[in-house]
Design a protein that fits this description.
Elements: H1 5-16, E1 18-25, E2 28-35, H2 42-51, E3 59-62, H3 65-75, E4 80-84, E5 95-96, E6 104-107, H4 110-120, E7 124-126, E8 135-136, E9 140-144, E10 150-159, E11 164-170, H5 177-183, E12 189-192, H6 201-210, H7 216-234, E13 237-247, E14 253-255, E15 258-262, H8 271-274, H9 284-290, E16 295-298, E17 303-307, H10 310-322, E18 329-332, H11 339-350, E19 357-364, H12 369-382, E20 389-395, H13 398-406, E21 412-414, H14 418-428
Parallel strand pairs: 17-19, 19-20, 20-21
Antiparallel strand pairs: 1-2, 3-9, 4-6, 4-9, 5-7, 7-8, 10-11, 10-13, 11-12, 13-14, 13-15, 16-18
Helix pairs in contact: 1-10, 3-4, 6-7, 11-12, 12-13
Length: about 425
């Protein structure tokens, strides 16, 4: 059965707020989207690679036109590339509200760098992946432009089937790896890494050879592969994807672009990296929700959804859509619920001017329904809730929870099941 419009909207929201990840399935490559709470700019990822001995282009970062000009002079390069630093892709084909076309520019004249930076910094850059109004550029990266004689693809990722990390490579780089896997699967090479032993020399050399590096470049590429694996472990990454891993006319193997995905559970030991998190481009409501371990994605409807569990949240969005309503959000409370989380969730939902009704759908397993009920009654009183509220509770301590709601004296509409809850929520905004 095809997903409903509401479910598709949630999926789009999840994709928009995430970084794509690769996974291996029966020797095929596929890309899925997982929520990425840590967002690093390109220059930050390059800095991490540089610190691990991975070869990247020489670069400087600037937040003013004079600084960009000075950086270009300091590079003393034959050609310079100036890149606007935003988290969205498609920068090269973007458009600034200053009138400048493109967020990536090549020049051999350092003076031009200052002129271009003046039209980038402080202006909004709009690409296919940004909101309509674009994203304000606050930083630019000034880097040495290097010629690429050949492009390859290389990645290290966690693979459930192998119970650990896997190297994936292809001599066909600079393009979507999914297309290579679909059209020429024989050009995809895989090496399973023993997590205790690490990348062996023979593995690194074999991968380098499979990527098409020859002569001295083979050993150089193998060295870069081992350094990338060291980075993978050091930063608790779930994926390090380099596309392209290229060679220059001067005989150098360089990581020209990379995406690093991090294990959010490792934040406690990666404080320095997580402190670099750039939240300026994130939705303010999503950012506020994350402070209380709430997963929030705004949608276009008028019925707010407050649910525990991502699957149940998507089902709730679907059934609202089925009954002719439109969900205003996707809000997942998760499992380790506290009363204050419920209160904060209601604050977020009621702050949205589009919300005309709230549907709470809780199926309590490890969640204590009484805690939810107490949080709801507190929020209703302190926030002076003005919109209809429909509540469906089921599971642990549900009898006590229903007693708390019924004795509260608050205008709360109870529902027996999800279908009943969705019908009542939709009906409440049609009165």
């Amino acid at each position: 059965m095809a997903a409903s419009m509401a479910c598709q909207a949630v999926a789009r929201g999840l994709r928009g707020a995430s970084a794509s990840c690769l996974f291996l399935n029966k020797n095929k490559l596929a890309r899925v989207s997982s929520r990425r709470w840590l967002n690093l700019q390109e220059y930050q990822s390059k800095k991490l690679m540089q610190e691990s001995g991975v070869t990247v282009q020489r670069f400087f970062v600037a937040d003013s036109a004079p600084e960009a000009l000075e950086a270009a002079k300091r590079l003393n390069a034959k050609e310079i590339v100036l890149k606007a630093q935003i988290l969205a892709g498609g920068r090269g084909k973007g458009m600034f509200n200053s009138g400048l076309k493109g967020g990536v520019h090549l020049t051999k004249d350092p003076a031009v760098v200052g002129e271009l930076a003046n039209k980038m910094l402080g202006y909004n850059l709009t690409t296919k992946q940004t909101p309509k109004e674009g994203v304000k550029v606050k930083t630019v990266m000034v880097a040495e432009a290097l010629d690429i004689t050949r492009e390859t693809y290389f990645a290290i990722l966690m693979d459930r089937a192998c119970n650990g990390p896997v190297m994936v490579g292809s001599p066909q780089g600079g393009m979507d790896i999914e297309e290579v896997a679909a059209n020429t699967p024989e050009l995809i090479f895989k090496e399973v890494i023993d997590i205790f032993e690490g990348v062996r020399d023979d593995q690194a050399l074999r991968m380098a050879a499979n990527l098409g590096f020859k002569g001295p470049l083979e050993r150089q590429a193998a060295d870069q592969i081992k350094r990338l694996y060291d980075l993978f472990l050091k930063v608790d990454a779930t994926q390090v994807e380099v596309n392209p891993l290229g060679e220059t006319p001067e005989g150098q193997v360089v990581c020209f672009d990379a995406k690093i995905n991090f294990d959010d559970n490792a934040e406690f030991r990666q404080k320095a990296i997580f402190a670099m998190d750039d939240m300026t481009e994130s939705d303010p409501t999503e950012t506020e929700a994350a402070k209380y371990d709430l997963k929030y994605i705004g949608l276009d409807g008028n019925i707010a959804c407050f649910v525990n569990g991502a699957g149940l949240a998507m089902a709730t969005c679907d059934i609202i859509d089925l009954h002719g309503g439109k969900p205003a959000n996707f809000l997942d409370l998760g499992g380790g619920v506290k009363e204050n989380q419920v209160y904060q969730a209601f604050k977020l939902l009621t702050a949205d001017p589009k919300v005309e009704a709230i549907l709470v759908n809780i199926f309590g397993g490890i969640v204590n329904c009484a805690i939810i009920a107490n949080g709801i009654t507190k929020a209703c009183r302190e926030l002076e809730l003005k919109v209809p509220l429909v509540v469906r509770l089921e599971g642990t301590n549900v009898t006590e929870a229903k007693r708390i709601l019924s004795e509260s004296g608050l205008p709360i509409t109870s529902a027996e099941n999800l279908d009943d809850a969705a019908k009542k929520a939709v009906a409440s905004i049609r009165k």
